[in-house]
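About this split. The held-out portion is used to measure sequence recovery: a designer receives only the structure tokens and must propose an amino acid at every position. Recovery is the fraction of positions where the proposal matches the reference. Here is one held-out target exactly as it appears in the evaluation file.
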């Protein structure tokens, strides 16, 4: 009987604290922030860009996240959602995007596509938003000059 009581005590020692335990030791609501102030984050981002340029390394989102001490890109994106840090992270990501855009290698194009860019070409077949109308002044067939009836028939067939 005594052994059962000891085993039960040992089991409780290793159990996690119950949910919503406000009195648990170390329960401060999650991991402390990596950066306390926006200025601190801005300084570190600038250091990354200066270092990458000096070492002639490619500037990347992953490189930025690692340099800032994050475990993943998602941590960088999470900081973007914090109001105080949002502008700094958006600006840093735009700087990375700019480095891809200015180089234009296959890697850069692939990276830009992953950032939401598309490889789509749009051709406007209008003039200042108006359709181009080219009047037909003369109608011919393969055999020579066509009649006005041939012309009218051809237009009727288009409808």
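Reference sequence for scoring:
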């Amino acid at each position: 009987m005594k052994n059962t009581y000891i085993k039960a005590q040992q089991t409780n020692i290793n159990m996690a604290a119950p949910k919503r335990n406000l009195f648990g030791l170390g329960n401060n609501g999650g991991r402390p922030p990596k950066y306390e102030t926006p200025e601190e984050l801005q300084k570190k981002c600038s250091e990354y860009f200066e270092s990458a340029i000096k070492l002639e390394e490619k500037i990347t989102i992953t490189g930025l996240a690692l340099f800032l001490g994050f475990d993943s890109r998602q941590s960088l994106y999470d900081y973007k959602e914090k109001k105080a840090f949002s502008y700094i992270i958006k600006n840093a990501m735009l700087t990375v995007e700019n480095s891809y855009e200015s180089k234009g290698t296959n890697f850069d194009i692939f990276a830009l596509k992953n950032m939401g860019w598309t490889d789509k070409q749009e051709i406007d077949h209008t003039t200042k938003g108006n359709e181009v109308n080219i009047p037909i002044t003369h109608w011919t067939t393969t055999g020579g000059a066509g009649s006005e009836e041939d012309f009218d028939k051809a237009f009727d067939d288009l409808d």
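Annotator remark: The chain has a mean pLDDT of 76.
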